[in-house]
Specification:
Keywords: Chlorophyll, Chromophore, Membrane, Photosynthesis, Photosystem II, Plastid, Transmembrane, Transmembrane helix. It is a multi-pass membrane protein. It holds the Pfam family PSII. It is found in: Membrane. By secondary structure, the protein is mainly alpha-helical. Strands 1-2 form a two-stranded antiparallel sheet. About 10% of the residues are buried. The chain has 5 helices and 2 strands, in the order ααααββα. It is elongated, with a radius of gyration of 23 Å. It starts with a helix and ends in a 12-residue tail after the last helix.
Length: about 170
């Protein structure tokens, strides 16, 4: 999807004709996560780029394609070479799939990957941070973001109008 959007995106006027007005969906999310340059020689800030490197829109899309292929190859390797209980029916002893267990394992691993991405890339510990802009989206830059600790308690403790106070009977 990102490669398709890059093929149809017109970066000539990023202020009056931004990507979200052109119907882009994936590229704005990539920009919010800190990707600002393209192999096409343009930047989201309006400047020209001579060497965007691997962490450009096309580079990140390609990295995700390669990563998904490696995950598929890892799944095939584990299916063939590992004799795990999730691949064997306990009653018959024949090969089968324990789908809830497989789902749980993959849910855990994807949670670890998402937490690692947020903890290292977004906060700036290992990575640039994310795109932070003004309320109107006109200016911005990539910078690390401090995590909001205990943000749910501040949300729950504020006065929410008609919901606050005793519940009518």
């Amino acid at each position: 999807m990102a490669l398709y959007e890059l093929a149809v995106f017109d970066p000539s006027d990023p202020v009056l004709d931004p990507m979200w007005r052109q119907g882009m969906f994936v590229i704005p999310f990539m920009t919010r996560l800190g990707i600002t340059n393209s192999w096409g020689g343009w930047s989201i800030t309006g400047g020209t780029v001579t060497n965007p490197g691997i962490w450009s829109y096309e580079g990140v899309a390609g990295a995700h394609i390669v990563f998904s292929g490696l995950c598929f190859l890892a799944a095939i390797w584990h299916w063939v070479y590992w004799d795990l209980e999730i691949f064997c029916d306990e009653r018959t002893g024949k090969p089968s799939l324990d789908l809830p267990k497989i789902f749980g394992i993959h849910l855990f691993l994807s949670g670890v990957a998402c937490f690692g991405f947020g903890a290292f890339h977004v906060t700036g510990l290992y990575g640039p941070g994310i795109w932070v802009s003004d309320p109107y989206g006109l200016t911005g830059k990539v910078q690390p973001v401090n995590p909001a600790r205990n943000s749910l308690s501040s949300y729950c403790s504020r006065n929410i109008g008609h919901i606050s106070g005793p519940i009518p009977s």
